[in-house]
Amino acid sequence: MGLQPTTSASEVAALGRSPAPPPLFDGGLGSDSRGRLEITERDVDGVRILALGGELDLATAGELCARVDAARAGGERRLLIDLGAVEFCDSSGLRALIGASEEVAASAGVLAVIPPRASGPAQVFAVSGAEELLPLHATIGAALPALSVDRRGPTTR
User: Fold this and answer.
1) How many domains does the structure of the chain reveal?
2) How far is Cα 58 from Cα 94, in angstroms, rounded to an integer?
3) CATH number of 104's domain
4) Which of 104, 81, 79 is nearest to 157 (CA)?
5) pTM tops 0.85, yes or no
6) CB within 8 A of 120, min separation 6: which ones?
7) What is the pLDDT of residues 92-117, one digit of tens each?
8) Domain that holds residue 47
9) CA quadruple 152, 153, 155, 156: dihedral, nearest 10
10) Cβ-Cβ contacts under 8 Å for 62 (sequence gap 6 or more)
């Protein structure tokens, strides 16, 4: 009979076996391994900037979506998502960004993204072809002019 998940450490020791190590990744669903995402907001020249730090993944993508929705509901039409301090990004995070871009465009707004600087998340953006799906800019200074006009011309906000 093999070891069952409910086998205690003392039972394992009595059998002369070491317990299996905990999983390295539990899909982000365990309470101990939930990723942390920090989002700070500020306005520069009428553009709402959401600066993210930490992990943008399955466990945290909903927080980004909620912040973008709140900005849209508050009348913000020009959004910049700065991922410069993001240390980890998976396909769920990338999908949240693409969805945010589509939602902002559907509400007659414009969104730009500063991609992550860390090598891991930057590689996700490179291999996924994110530049074809998202308006990427290297810096806030480069993004602001792109956000100064929308599809109908200069903004008045």
Assistant:
1) 1
2) 10
3) 3.30.750.24
4) 79
5) no
6) 87, 88, 89
7) 999 999 999 999 999 999 999 999 99
8) 37-148
9) -100
10) 96
